[in-house]
């Protein structure tokens, strides 16, 4: 342990010399007894050692301290030897730095002396420059004055050169304007007065030439403006120049209007003369009018304001009245050109033409608000409404053409074994064609309200056009016209010599109107409201249910007329068969008459035809023996044997009395009542008309025994086949009972045929 402590202790003096680390010095508490610490107290240490240590320990401590002192001396010598060269080098360096510093101080003194000399020289140079600048300014003023005097002297020559015909009068005016104030200021001097008088003479001559040029009809608006502007600079009277400006501009604009009018045919108030087609389309016409007339009018209005605004004698609304007269003529010419658009043509071309017209007119209105804003907007609105009206007429013509195609298809002869298009196909083609054409028309009309069209922002096209022109004037009007036209096939009498509408066409149109009432009208109105949305505060519109009611009324009238036509056709056969037969002299019946077979065949064909377009409908529950029910010459199929117990054999029953009694207890049959939109109702109506006609014809004939039996056979045959077509078999049976009762009443020898024989004949027939 002694060796270890002896090895570390020699570093104590160095540590005391350089001091302990800062952290250790801060942490260690002051200890006066620590021989290696900074707070060592020798007197206190010796007192402590003498009082605490024995002699032997004191001697040992003395020997230890001696060794440490010798070691410390040795370390100090070693440190000195090792750093001796560094100490010598540092001393030399410091000596050299002192020499360099003294040299730098000498150089700085020299530099300061030089700067002082330079500052003195600069002051002298600055004073010299200021003196030279002052003299130069004085010289420049003298030179400028000389140049001004020279320029004033040269003014007449320059004015004469620039104001000469074909030269540069604008430069002459600028030169005169610059010199005029100086000449006026010094005109009391004779030389300056002479220059001024000569200049005035030259400019007066220029003013006369400009006046003469102003009367030249070949001047364009730009040249006219320049000429008037130069005259105003020459202090000519503004009121006279304003009058001449408007006169010259009016003549030029009138010529442009005359050129536009030359492209139009002469006006024909009677409207009887044939109008040739226009030489160019409407877009070219509007382009020429906009670029020539409207463009020049805008340019002249802007020039007028820049020239005469605020000048005395040039106000009073002259420009507004001048422009209003010319624009009114231009609107009239454009109206006449629009009237030549008799066909539909290209709607996009018309919209582009109206858009360009409106844009150029809007630019004119920014300069002249009173130049016809309302008239221009009304012209565009009338053109759009007129095109919508033409589209309505085109839709009507298209529908009539489609009807013609349908009639031709229905009337076309069919080769054997080849069937033509059925009624469902014709109806689908007609409906899709008309609806497609209507949607195409709406797409064309929608061009008038496109976002990129300037006039679409007008209040008319946001409200009234969408409702009154498109929805009411086009869509609603077309639907109502369609309903009236189709209904006219049933209501209107056929023209003399004109073929009546075929029954199949009546049936097809009835189905078309019924489909319109169910779905098409609602779809068309919804589509129209989406493409042309009406405003909340706009005019009232026709409600959809009102149109649906009209369509259903037309369908009902057509279907009723179909029943009447088909019933009349069958009734005509029955009438002729009754009126052309000798019912008194006829032979005993052996067959069913051919006309009854034809009636059943025609009713069957009608059933097939109606079934193609209308649903089956609801039938009343049939009896189990409908096709086998006995047909008797006594009312209600009641044979006289059923009433025999009430009467004596010698007094046979009066069949006429039985018929009248039966009518009291039977339901009344309405022959011409409106039919429902189903097949059984249509067939029931036709059968009622046919059998009612047969009944009336039989009532007017006188029959023999065999005539009565023939009626009995024919009636039973009709009963076998017609009951299945009617909504209620009792209607057929009741009418046939009346026919039999009437035949028996009109028979001279009412002896009926046995029922078994009647059945046998009908089954064989």
TrEMBL record:
Q: Which domain of life is it from?
A: Eukaryota
Instruction: Cite the entry's keywords alphabetically.
Output: Endosome, Golgi apparatus, Lipid transport, Protein transport, Transport
GO terms in the biological process aspect are: endocytic recycling; Golgi organization; Golgi vesicle transport; lipid transport; lysosomal transport; protein transport; retrograde transport, endosome to Golgi
Residue ranges annotated as compositionally biased, kind Low complexity, are 23-34
Renumbered residue ranges of the record's region Disordered: 23-43
Q: Name one GO cellular component term.
A: cytosol
Localization annotation = Golgi apparatus, trans-Golgi network; Recycling endosome
- Keyword Transport among UniProt keywords: yes
Indicate where this protein is primarily found: Golgi
Give one Pfam family.
Answer: VPS51_Exo84_N
State its role.
Involved in retrograde transport from early and late endosomes to the late Golgi. The GARP complex is required for the maintenance of protein retrieval from endosomes to the TGN, acid hydrolase sorting, lysosome function, endosomal cholesterol traffic and autophagy. Acts as component of the EARP complex that is involved in endocytic recycling.
Quaternary structure, per UniProt, is: Component of the Golgi-associated retrograde protein (GARP) complex. Component of the endosome-associated retrograde protein (EARP) complex.
What is the similarity comment for this entry? Belongs to the VPS51 family.
Q: What is this protein called?
A: Vacuolar protein sorting-associated protein 51 homolog
